[in-house]
Design a protein that fits this description.
about 350 residues; alpha/beta; Barwin-like endoglucanases; six-stranded mixed beta barrel; about 20% helix; about 30% strand
Length: about 350
């Protein structure tokens, strides 16, 4: 292979793409050229949108409440106290917080309530928060709550069950009308946004919301922020990531370059991601087995069909063990509350 010729061809190809991007999206301030679509999604035509930067903010887990639910959680006609104004005009953090409880009965306390009040209550979490709570929350734009996940909110005066309303907020960008005109972007377009620095990366599929009342600001959750080392106030830039293409004939690795199979028992820790568990159950069902509270992984890195069952003992089951006592083993799980109650009742616990 003529290595020198290959390098020349690659450089020539990249330079052509860069020149096309610059021509399509002039880097002159005030550019209002038409954006282009890539794979059906609208992208900013510029390779890099000049030197204008956007402020990025970390959106920590929080709750938006309706009037009805605030009354239940804090009392009838309760008026929350504004703790601080947020960067986006008309939005603020209240002093008040709630506890969010998921289906695993795990809880996250002191989740901030943001104002103003809304017509529907909404809980916004990061993926890490969802794993802690055992919640499978979808990625949604704010306010798109149909078919989303449930949870329980607890306040000092009462509790509210939300049948839906828990989401992972999509990456989104608030733009003033002036900046939207500058970039040639319309409301609900999608763009790529680049973060520079030691852990810099490019965020794709960033929804743009445009309003004359907005100040330009990007919102990402704590997981995205940690991945890119973003702090509140980090400056980011709108780019056209579609100009980046892999070098080489194929983007699929051949069999000599894939990672080795994971050997048996080499993965430790509890699987808490509901998506992983659902996928594993699906594979097990096809193999004729059932995955309950544990799983078997074969040396070929496929989920086996053996059925493994564990017994979970709760307080409600203790009467059945008054005489025999509770024998602990790898297939028996005794909840902490049941253990305390069993000791209090004098029920023998042995291995």
């Amino acid at each position: 292979m003529d290595t020198e010729k290959l390098i020349q061809d690659v450089v020539k190809s990249v330079m052509q793409k860069l020149s096309v991007g610059i021509i399509q999206g002039s880097q002159t301030p005030g550019n209002t050229s038409e954006p282009v679509k890539v794979d059906g999604k609208l992208k900013v035509a510029q390779t890099v949108a000049s030197d204008k930067k956007i402020v990025c903010s970390i959106s920590v887990k929080h709750v938006h409440l309706c009037r009805e639910h605030l009354d239940v959680l804090y009392g009838k006609d309760y008026e929350p106290t504004i703790l601080k104004e947020l960067y986006q005009p008309g939005n603020y953090a209240y002093k008040e917080t709630v506890t969010v409880v998921g289906p695993k009965l795990n809880a996250i306390q002191n989740v901030r309530i943001l104002g103003p009040l809304r017509s529907k209550s909404q809980v916004e979490l990061a993926k890490t928060d969802c794993i802690i709570l055992g919640i499978d929350a979808p990625v949604r734009p704010s306010g798109k709550l149909e078919g989303t996940t449930s949870c329980v909110l607890i306040g000092p005066k009462g509790a509210v069950y939300l049948s839906e309303g828990v989401i992972r907020a999509n990456r989104h960008l608030h733009l003033s009308q002036e900046d939207a005109d500058y970039f040639g972007i319309k409301d609900n377009d999608e763009v790529d946004v680049r973060v520079t620095g030691p852990k810099g990366l490019t965020f794709n599929n960033v929804q743009v919301r445009v309003s004359k009342d907005f100040v330009s600001e990007m919102h990402i959750d704590t997981d995205d922020g940690n991945a890119a080392d973003v702090v509140n106030g980090t400056l980011v830039e709108i780019v056209n990531a579609s100009c980046i293409a892999p070098i080489g004939p194929s983007t699929i690795a051949d069999s000599n370059r894939i990672p080795p199979n994971i050997p048996d028992n080499s993965i430790s820790g509890e699987i808490t991601d509901p998506n992983i568990l659902r996928n594993m159950n699906s594979v097990m069902a096809q193999a004729g087995g059932v995955l309950t509270t544990s799983n078997t992984i074969s040396s070929s890195n496929n989920i086996g069909s053996a059925r493994t069952t564990k017994t979970v003992i709760t307080v409600a089951d203790l009467d059945s063990y008054k005489v025999s006592g509770i024998k602990l083993s790898t297939n028996v799980i005794l909840s902490p509350l049941a253990k305390d109650e069993a000791l209090a009742r004098g029920i023998k616990i042995f291995s």
